[in-house]
Every structure is written in C-alpha cells, then in structure tokens.
Amino acid sequence: MSLTAERMPTPRDVEQWRPPERARQPAWHGWRDRLGRHWLVVVSGLVLLYLFVPIIVTVLFSFNDNLGRFNFTWRGFTIEHWRNACGVPGLCPAMVRSLQVATIATIGATILGTLVAFALVRHRFRGRGPTNLALFLPMATPEIVMGTSLLALFLNLGMTRGFRTIVIGHIMFNISFVVVTVKARLQGQDANLEEAAMDLYADEWTTFRKVTLPLAMPGIIAGALLAFALSFDDFVITNFVSGNTVTFPMFVWGAAQRGIPPQVNVMATLMFAVALTAALVGLLGRRRA
Amino acid sequence: MAAAATPATGQQADGRTDRRRRLLPYLLLAPGIAWLLVFFFVPMFTLFQTSLQEGSLQQGYVLTWRWANYTEALSTFSSQYLRSFFYAGVATVAALLLGYPLAYFIAHRAGRWRNLFLLLVIMPLLVSFLVRTLAWKIILADQGPVVEALKAIGALPASGRLLATSWAVVAGLTYNYLPFMILPLYASLEKIDPRLIEAAQDLYSAPFTAFRKVTLPLSLPGVVAGTLLMFIPAAGDFVHAEFLGTPSQYMIGNVIESRFLVVLDYPTAAALSFVLMATILVLVVSYLRRVDVEDVL
C-alpha cells in the first residue's frame, strides 16, 4: 500500500496490515512471559524465606521451655531464659571476652587498614600489585589454613595461646576487609575537594583533618563495624589460637556436645538485634549523607 | 589519582617536603602490610616447616624434611579430601541455583527496595555462625516438620533421617555461605545495563534467550567471584560435619582440627593443612588469570 497525498491510510488499512513473516514476533507477550516474570518473584521470595528460617527458629527457641540440657524440641513458651540470661556458668564471661577481643581487634585493624586504603587510593607508589595480592590472599584463604598456620607460628615461637594471640589473628584477617570498605568510600570521593582546600591556603595536615578525614569517616566507620562483627563471630581461627581463653563462639562449640542451653539463643538473638539496629542506623544515616 | 598534590601558592617545594611526600605512601602501607607479612605469610612458612618435622609432644619436634609426612597424610585421608571438595562443590552449585534468581530480582526488579533486600540477605549473617548451624539441627530433626513432610511425599523412607547424613551437611554448607554467593552475583548483575537486555528483546529474542546470550555472559565475573567466595571456605569447613553429620561425613577440616588440637600430631596436621591451601591456591590462581585482582577487591 502506498502513502500518497490523495489517500490517507484508513483504520481498515492499518488493521489489514500484517508484518512480513520473517519479522513476526514470537509469543513472548503471552502467558509464558507472564509466568516467567512471576516465577522470578516466587523463587526469590522462597530463597529469602529459606535464609530466614534458621533465624526465626533461633529466636523462637530462646523462648522454649526445654527439658534438661537439650533444646531441640518445642515444649512450651517461657521467658525464663531471658530473665536468667547469665544463669549458665561461663556464658556471660565468654560474651565479655568476645567484646574485649572484638574491640581491640577492631581498633587495630581499622587503623592499619585505613592507612593502607589511603595509600592505595590517594598515592602513587611502586609495588601496587604485590600489595593488592597481599591484601587479597587472606580473603581467599580458608580460615582453617590461617588458623592452623598461626598456631604453627605460636607453637614454634613458644607463645602461650590466649587473649593476645586471638587479637593478633583477628587483626590480621580484618585488615583486608577494612581496606576494601574504606577504599570503596575513598574512591567515590572527589579528589578535587582536597585540592580546593589547599588552593585556599590550607596546608596538608589541615586539609586532611578538615576535609579528607570527615569525608572518609562513614567508610572508616563501616569498616570498623564490619571488623567488629567479623571478630565477634569468628570461630575457626579463634578455635586454633585461643588456648584456654573462651570467647562466645568457643563457648558454643564446647557446649555443643553437652547440650546448648537456650540462653545461648538468647544471647544470639540479642546480638542479632544490636547488629540489626546498627545496620539500620547506618543505612538511614547514609541516605541522609 | 594525584600523588603529591600540587603545592598551594606560598608553599615551598623543598627537597625535604618532596622526599617526605614520596615516602608517605610507603609509611602508610608499612604497618598494615608488616602485620600481614608477620601474621599471614610467615605463618604459612612455619606451617610448611612444621609439616616436615618429626617427633612427638614429649620428645619435641625436629625438622628432618620428612616428605613422607605428605604421602602418608594424603594416602590415609584422601577420602576426606575428596569428600570435602565434593560437598563444597555440590553446595556451591546449589547456592548458585538458589542465589542467582534472588540476585537478579534484587538487581533488576527491586527498584527502590534494593537496599532493603540486600539488608535482608545480609541479616542472617548477623546471627552467630555456630548458632545458625545448630538451628538446622532443630529444623532437620527426626520427627521434625521437614523430615515428616519428606516422608509424607515419599522422598524419605519411613525409617529415614536427614540429620547425620551427607544431605544435612551439604544443606548446612549451602545455607551458611549463600549470602557470599548472592552478593557478588548481585554486584555483577547490577552493573548490566538493562537497556542491553531490552535491546535483545527488541530484536525479537524470547526472554530466556536474552538471558542466555546477554545477561548470563555479562554476569560471569559475579559467578566466578561468588563461586570462589563460597567454595573456598566451604572446602575447609568442619563445623557442619561436626554438628550435622557423623564421622562418616567428616571433611578434611575435621581431620585437621582433630590432628592439631586433640591428637596433637602437628606434622601430619600441618601437611594436611598445607595441601588444602595449595589445592585452593591453584584453583584461585587459575580463575584469577582472567580477572584483575584489583577488580575483585
């Protein structure tokens, strides 16, 4: 059909037009595509549910009125374990130990990691490749290998395994994570801001203090929180280098054979609530920033 | 970006300042890298050294270059090695199948709720690792809901159980490391320009073909990263076999743990640990030949 001035296409012309065979669309606008779209949502929802089932079970069983030492079958609801959270000998001291270790390890790893991150992002230097490799390897090595090698080191040096050795190990594996986190923040920043400050006659130290550091702070805090969480929950490396010191994961491991008291679930739920709050605050805070 | 920034007007660029500026990155790097050298790299060397020693706790250990430690360890515990890689492999594949749809959903369908969903993915990690694993002991317990349901549909014989079997161990591994698969997948999928997929569909491609020819290849870096981030820790794991399995399910991690901390056979344990590391290193290096390390960081 031709479009000429004498004859405008009528609706019937348009209706009768069919695309040539070759370019005909397959039926992807049909039911199969609609099912496909919903399939994705359904599967995603199921996987999310799958992720949360053990969490729900953990929280739930902190309220279980269990019998004896084991807490595997639901018998009834009670808040007794919450009221008597420190009733299990060794549990609360272990929590305190974990907090102490995590605090010191976090401070150490954050300082060391932040310095490295600044060097990587803001400076040119030789040996960038080996540095990146050195930072990457701890993240790519199984924890059991890191833990056993540290144990071998401490054995050969004759160092007693305990609080100090745990902190050493935790700082070691946390450095890489802090570097990654702070680097991400620094790379998103505009280096021109620092130049602008210096153009306004600020010297390098003042620029660092008033421009660079405050801008990088959210990344540093994020790195610190990540390090704290990783340190608090670390089991494998701690297992090999802890000697007689008992952190919370070590307590759970030791109690596993004898029967895990519900107070452990209470502590885990508490930690979860605190961590969740911190994450939410961080998320909301970032939106305002 | 800029190394030494251009000195502002009025600042002298004397030799001392220049030298300090050039040294600055090395000074910044030194503490962190030194810590890693002393407490990551040196211990590897010590591990290697210990693996070639001979002796006992009472007599003390002597470095005798006893390579037989390796051959003996490998021959005695080869089944645990193979089992570890098998379990880790199955768990990785399962996590890939489970995690990919969710990662895709968050990357391309979640819109403004993206961060919320990412938080939901990370949230399970906020519960202690050991406690999460123990929860599976409750969920998969005999006479528990899961086992009863499987018996009802005939997937499990009447006397069957899930706990203390390989299924439970692999299920635990899949679960605990799933977020480490989802997050890299998401990061990679999120970078894919949705217009590319739209373009494929505009060219009359069915959705699955668009996925196969456009999305999947572009998401391969994420698949690689997620696979590594999951397989590596899973292969060395021993908690799941301990909690959810029996000695028949013991992985090489269990053997290493008992040799080091119970039997106190340090040379054998060190040899086993070293072989595990070497195997994983080969795997990682062969993967990373295609990816620049700094991109993964």
Describe the secondary structure blueprint for this structure.
The complex is a heterodimer of chains A (289) and B (297).
Chain A: H1 11-16, H2 31-61, H3 80-83, H4 91-122, H5 128-140, H6 143-157, H7 163-187, H8 192-199, H9 204-232, H10 236-241, H11 248-258, H12 262-288
Helix pairs in contact in A: 4-7, 4-9, 4-11, 5-7, 7-9, 8-9
Chain B: H1 15-51, E1 53-56, E2 60-63, H2 68-108, H3 114-122, H4 129-139, H5 145-152, H6 166-191, H7 194-202, H8 207-218, H9 220-235, H10 239-244, H11 252-261, H12 266-288, H13 293-296
Antiparallel strand pairs in B: 1-2
Helix pairs in contact in B: 1-12, 2-6, 2-9, 2-12, 6-9, 7-8, 9-12, 11-12
Overview of this structure, please?
Chain A is an all-alpha fold. Chain A has a domain of about 170 residues: Orthogonal Bundle (MetI-like fold). Helices cover about 70% and strands about 0% of the residues of chain A. Chain A is built from twelve helices and no strands. The radius of gyration of chain A is 29 Å and the shape is flat. Chain A starts with 10 loop residues before the first helix and ends with a helix. With about 300 residues, chain B is mostly helical. Chain B has a single domain, classed as Orthogonal Bundle (MetI-like fold). Helix content of chain B is about 70%, strand content about 5%. Chain B contains 13 helices and two strands. In chain B, strands 1-2 form a two-stranded antiparallel ribbon. The N terminus of chain B is likely disordered. Chains A and B meet through helix 2, helix 4, helix 5, helix 6 and helix 7 of A and helix 1, helix 2, helix 3, helix 4 and helix 6 of B.
